[in-house]
Amino acid sequence: MSLRGIAAVTRLELQQVLVRPLSVALGLFFVVLVGTAGYVGSLAKDAAGGALPGDFAASAVVAFMAFAIALIGPIIPILSTIHSVSEERTTRTIDLLASRPITRRDLLLGKILGRGAHVVAAAVIGILVGAALAAGQVPLALGDLLVFTLLVAMLCMCWVGLTMLASTLLKGSTGVLGIAIGIYFLFIIYGLVLGMVGLGGLAAITNPNTLFLGAVWQLITLPSVTQQGLDVATRGLPKGMAFAALAAFLVAASAAAVEVFHRQDEAGG
After folding, report:
1. Is residue 269 part of a domain?
2. Is residue 34 included in any domain, yes or no?
3. Is 140 helix (H, G, I), strand (E, B) or coil?
4. pTM of the model
5. Would you give the distance in Å from CA 205 to the centre of its chain?
6. Is the four-CA dihedral 54, 57, 61, 63 of positive or negative sign?
7. 196 part of a folded domain
């Protein structure tokens, strides 16, 4: 593993992202989405006539941002990452990169980190905007804000790794948009199907979105009533288990993408 090579690819990916209008637009949309969700959550206190205690009001801000990120947020890393390998393979750019003194594992890891840095940066800015807009109504504890930001970054990287895996399996750019949309809905559909046959718990612990929500309710200081009402999918898991499972999903998705890309080299793909 060459840290210098990985860093070089990461910088190249970021440069490519920042000059593509779609990637810039997706990043700005993510900032607006998260920031708006935080602000709307802060209005819950006014909607209740100012009667909500501070901790309940803060939980509304976290809840609005968390659900916005879990339900809509994955679209951002999916659309910004799905072309990463397939498009460059079509234009043969991937062959030029792979011909440099860097392994294919390092090459794809650098691409994952580069795309992930773009998405995570947009999410972090959105969180800061949301927290700033909510501060006048509901100040958030710094510790909770840092934990929430870490969990959001982990969720974003899960989707980047998962989408990069799909991108390595694509031989061209045809039908990429449909595949990207399919990836998003796959985790919704299979969760519903498993829930119908009594395997909802299995769906919960293998879905990065539900693991993210579970980790938020387990690790962030929220009123017990709020935790019991919102931590439905991962209820019953030991504290910290959702976080551990989310971390495992992140590593597994990225490692699978890197290994598949490496084996394609050995097979001449």
Report:
1. no
2. yes
3. coil
4. 0.83
5. 16
6. positive
7. yes
